[in-house]
Amino acid sequence: MNDFTLGAGAREHAVAAQTRTLVICPYLTSRSANGSNRTADARREEATGLARAIELDVVGAETVTLGEIRPASFLGKGKVEEFAERIAADEVGLVVMDCALSPVQQRNLEKAFKAKVIDRTGLILEIFGRRARTAEGALQVELAHLGYQKSRLVRSWTHLERQRGGFGFLGGPGETQIETDRRLIQERMIRLERDLEQVKKTRGLHRASRREVPYPIVALVGYTNAGKSTLFNRLTRADVVAADMLFATLDPTMRLLKLPHGGAAILSDTVGFISDLPTMLISAFRATLEEVRAADVILHIRDIAHADTDAQAQDVQSILTEVGVDNAAEKLIEVWNKVDQLDEDRREGLAFSQAADKPIAVSAITGEGLDALLEAIEARLARGRSLLDVHLDPADGQGLHWLYEHTEVMTRESGEDGSVNLTVRVAPETLPRVMRRFPSAA
Predict the structure, then answer these.
(1) What DSSP character marks residue 339?
(2) Predicted confidence (pLDDT) per residue in 77-98, tens digit
(3) DSSP class of residue 340?
């Protein structure tokens, strides 16, 4: 990262910190109409957390119950006037609407409020734009951003200034306003999709090469801020960013995970999921989420201390289905994280409920339950894999090396004559090769 980028980032944080922001949460009175099982308080808290994830100065957050959505402004006329007065009095420069606004609704609200208005999709896109650290992540976010802007054809955050190259939500010196039409945007999107298709092919080649070595893939998924990165660090002794904020991790990270009986796996940390995740983001990040589809085991990390943990779990399951993880139940281990935050009564209830579906209760902070989790990962990986006993002559050093490269060596014993007896675990796709090379294995 160069000095210019660091300077731009510092300016961006400074400007965001000076942007007085009001979060408005307009929810329909019918939960089924909202398409959400979570409470209004929890949804408002999450929306506020999204705004604070990019250091905005949130001066207030209000819930509005709606009987119906108004086509022109989403909110009713009375509420629009009420909020306009408050926005003027509190000198609010940005209004975050925790809903999906049409371009017309966004423009009408901006005229009424005399302030910039951004909806939930735009806010999540801005967060993703901040979090992307790799070239792939930048491509994915830009593609999603252009899809969002295609119907608007105006830069979202022109009131916040910074100077940076490439695309951005924050216009400023050194950048020109979007003055292009849908055709030019579409051409850019086609190029990005072509680039991402190449990324997908490259990832496919990497996965194919990994299949040549005996390391299965274990993918972490979960609602944003469920503690995935903290758990990833604890299990692999890595130093992935693990902040108490929404979407602290965006770009996928992989590390080697040691298993209890000497085996190993590749542990993959992925982007956190969230309710009402924009469809364009799911589409753009499909290449990244291919890692989840290709995983041998999926760890669904849940913040069991969160009031809406069940609703969050449903959102994660829905997104897994949307990205094509059809056999998630066979691969999935449910991990109940943050048990250290539960009081004694809830912990006792947790122990009782575990008897039914066998989730693993852990604390990524204290390390509680991690041994049981590693045992569960190893047991799940063993499903569909064969255990073979292989006897090697003293001179077969090449064969010994091949087994370490292509299988999981579970046990090894050396005989007095220098021979080696191994117990190895073999993936189904590797089994024919092992049997051809070691026909006496059983």
Answers:
(1) G
(2) 999 999 999 999 999 999 999 9
(3) G
pLDDT at 279 > cutoff 50: yes
pTM of the model: 0.73
Amino acid in position 259: L
Which helix H or strand E contains 377, and what residues bound it?
A: helix 370-382
**Pairwise CA distance, residues 247 & 384, whole Å:** 34
Hey, what are 406's tokens?
Answer: 């292509």
| Residue 238 falls in which region: left (phi positive, over 0), alpha (psi -120 to 50) or beta | beta
Q: Can you spell out the DSSP letters for 184-231?
A: HHHHHHHHHHHHHHHHHHHHHHHHHHHHTTT--EEEEEEBTTSSHHHH
Query: Between the ranges 79-88, 246-255, 272-281, where is the mean pLDDT highest?
Result: 79-88
Shortest CA distance to 137 belongs to which of 299, 270, 295, 298?
270
* CA–CA dist 410, 125 (Å, integer): 45
- C-alpha closest to that of 142 among 116, 161, 164: 164
376 CB neighbour count, 10 Å cutoff: 19
Whether 366 has a pLDDT exceeding 60, the answer reads yes
Instruction: Kindly tell me the burial class for residue 355, based on how many C-beta atoms sit within 10 Å of its own C-beta (0-12, 13-18, 19 or more).
Output: exposed
Tens of pLDDT, residue by residue over 298-345, are: 999 999 998 888 888 988 888 888 777 766 677 889 999 999 998 887
> Which stretches within 53-181 are classed as H helix?
77-89, 103-113, 120-131, 135-149
Q: CA-to-CA distance for 6 and 320, rounded, in angstroms? A: 35
Name all domains of the chain by residue range, CATH numbers in brackets: 3-132 (3.40.50.11060), 213-382 (3.40.50.300), 386-437 (no CATH)
Structure tokens at 134: 């790799």
Q: φ, ψ for residue 179 (rounded to 5)? A: -120, 20
Asked if 302 and 223 touch (Cβ cutoff 8 Å), the reply is yes
Distances in Å between the Cα of 52 and the Cα atoms of 20, 32, 248, 283, 312 are 11, 28, 12, 25, 20
